[in-house]
Write a structure and sequence with these properties.
single chain, mainly alpha, Small ribosomal subunit protein bS18
């Protein structure tokens, strides 16, 4: 009902002007009319309610606990000569991937780092990529 009253043209003979130039068509407030405009601290989607264990209840995604590959496969010594194994823990640019991303335990991350550095020193692994 409220939309009908606003949609009617003014009863006077002059056309309504919304801004300085009446040539251009009126743009909607947001690019997508089905979404509310961004306003407030949470941005366009509203405030965050928490993650899977947070106050917002269950989240969409369930993040599995990462398990150490070396502990599960009972690998105690990490050989610096095993380039295929070490390349899985080196990023594309040549950086050692942190354990929060790989899921390796602390002791094996230290051994892994030492093995990667040894392999770099004897030129089995590159220090950095060429660009």
């Amino acid at each position: 009902m409220a939309d009908e009253t606003q949609a009617k043209a003014p009863e006077s003979g002059a056309p309504a002007q919304s801004g300085p130039s009446s040539d251009r068509p009126e743009r909607p407030s947001s690019d997508r009319p089905d979404r509310p405009s961004s306003g407030g601290p949470g941005g366009p989607r509203g405030p965050r309610t928490g993650g899977p264990g947070g106050p917002g209840g269950r989240g969409k995604f369930f993040r599995r606990k990462k398990v150490c590959k070396f502990c599960t496969e009972k690998i105690d010594a990490i050989p610096y000569r095993d380039v295929r194994l070490l390349q899985g823990f080196v990023a594309e640019r040549g950086k050692i991937v942190p354990r929060r991303l790989t899921g390796v335990c602390t002791t094996h991350q230290r051994r892994l780092t030492r093995a990667i550095k040894q392999a770099r020193n004897i030129a089995l692994l590159p220090f950095a990529t060429r660009h």
